[in-house]
Amino acid sequence: MDWPQTLTLLGGLAAILFSLFHQFDKRFEQVDKRFEQVDKRFEQVDKRFEQVDKRFEQVDKRIDDLRLEMVQRFAQVDKRIDDLRADTTGRLDRIERLLERLLKPELKP
Predict the structure, then answer these.
(1) Which DSSP letter does residue 109 get?
(2) DSSP string, 55-85
(3) CA 50 to CA 25: how far, in whole Å?
(4) 2 in helix, strand or coil?
(5) d(CA 36, CA 29)
(6) Tell me: the pLDDT tens digits for 81-103?
(7) What is the pTM assigned to this prediction?
C-alpha cells in the first residue's frame, strides 16, 4: 500500500471516527439534559415534601390546640356540673328541712 492510499484510508477512518464521536457527543449532551430535567424534578419533589411537612406541622399544632381547648371546655363543663350538683343538693336539703318543719307539728299529737 502506498502513502496516498494510506492517507485516503486514514482520512476516511478519521471521518468515520469523527462522525462516531460527534454522535456520541450529541448523545451525551442529550443524556446531560435529561439528567438536568430529572434533577429539577427532584428539586420540585423536595419542595413539595417541605410544603407537606410544614402543613403536617400546622395540622399537628391545630390538633394540639383543639385538644387543649376541648380539655378546657370539659373542665368548665365538669365545674358547671359540680356547681349545679351542689346547688341542687343545697336546694334539696332546704326543701327537706322545710318539709320536716312543716310536718313536725302534724306528727305531735
Answers:
(1) -
(2) HHHHHHHHHHHHHHHHHHHHHHHHHHHHHHH
(3) 37
(4) coil
(5) 10
(6) 999 999 999 999 999 999 888 87
(7) 0.53
DSSP code, position 35: H
| CA 33 – CA 67 distance, rounded (Å) | 51
Secondary structure of residue 14 in the 3-state scheme: helix
Among positive and negative, which fits the CA dihedral 60, 61, 62, 67? positive
Cell digits of residue 40: 429539577
Length of the chain: 109
* Residue type (1 letter), 54: K
Distance CA 94, CA 79 (A): 22
